Amino acid sequence: MKKVKDCCYKVVKKTNGSVSCLNILGSEQMEKVKDWNYKVVEKIGQGVFGEVYKCLNLETGKKVAIKMINIQNEPEGVPSYLIAGVSLLKELEHDNIVRLLDVLTSGRYVYLVFEYLDLDLGSFIRKHTATSIRPHIKTILSQILVGLAYYHSHNILHGDLQPSNVLIDLKSKKVKLADFGLTTSFGVPHIEYSYNEVGSPYKAPESRIRSSVYSTPHDVWAVGCIFAEMVSGNPLFPCGKKDHLSLIVRYLEDMINNLFICYWQDLAEQLLGLGLEPPGVELLSQMLYLDPDLRVTANGALLHRYLRHAEDIRIAETVPLKLPSSNKPSFSQKVSEGRF
Amino acid sequence: EEFIVNIFNSEVDHQKQGSELLAKYRKLPELVTSRQEAIKWILKVYSHSQFRPETAYLSVNYLDRFLLSHSMKPGKGWQWHLLSVACLAVAAKMEETSVPNLLDLQLIEPSSRFLFKPKTVHRMELLVMSSLKWRLCTVTPFDFVHYFISKISCFNPQRDGFGSVF
Question: Which molecular function term from Gene Ontology is one that the record holds (chain A) (predicted)?
Fold first, then answer.
């Protein structure tokens, strides 16, 4: 499930221009949402279990993401992953987590209505320079961790943390964790995870070695990767041209040998050069700790001195954020960066 | 610690519904007999298929909460049986690692009169879940038991209080 969903995100990104023609083809079943006063804007994703559409609530004027799931008429009835997943999402109510607003059913189709925000951290990082992101890193990081700590306190794993799943609300200045897939509760064995997703750069090393090990430290590792990506502007362990696994192995070898010379040292120096404070490097090393049992927890990370007073700095108080389309630094941005 | 606070809070939420339901049963005593029969069937299947006790608890919880939002006529046996099948199926899917398919589930303890198509049960499942607003993670007494047992047995010095919750 997770693997295919990742691919789909890529497909959508690549074919941004031609998405509109897909809309008309795939949205036959989405016509139904009109009855509930939603207007389909565009298709934003597709997975094995359904398609995700951006929609508009005609009553409130708010944007929502609707995930349409087709339940095949299996002898099992409504599949248990759907029952367990939706009921878990229903229990989550937190400022830093995208809300499941409604669950609608019609015939064999189930529609999950999620809160939707236009900007995700992935495009935010791509469209801004490292210097303009820097003042927001602490706030974004601490809000991600607050959301994650909430998940974990409810015995829920996010399991798929990556910048595109971190949404930013410019108006309320909130960062919200999203997962338009279905989150997993631990304690419930999940078959999906036995597939090895080599494609995800945010996956913790222990889950590559033993795919059955899947727990809260895994999410913290992913936050560490996101943290480093905010500082440098590039994925920490990029997959693609360079062999992603060999990078991780190099990193791990350093950690095992306690050498801290090669990869990690380079990385730390690079991040320090990019303006990350030494406590930040320390926190990052705790989040990327090899042994999942000794890795810092979400709550623990929030108590780290790097994030002290982070809640006092609200996003965009120092620098007004903009939607990715407008890249020009504003006057106040220049001021705060000391260019005047 | 957060975990136990959470489950206490949601327990308080659900208690309100409990008293509403009691009031409803007092007004309509004939509901009680139909309910008893439904529960009897659920418990039979539960013991035959060796489900977890949580499953039985949740099935009855879903059944009761469904009755709060829908007025079922006591006489219509098939409705009641369909409801019990759907509640048990949903609860089993929440709690069990392997769940028999909808036909086998009914055949474990065959009702003398009714056998529903999987498609029908499937629809009933959706109706039950949307009536409960998909609030299916009800706190059960077992949650408290597990928590306190883990507290008692967790004198492992390497683990702090937070770790022992999981």
Answer: cyclin binding
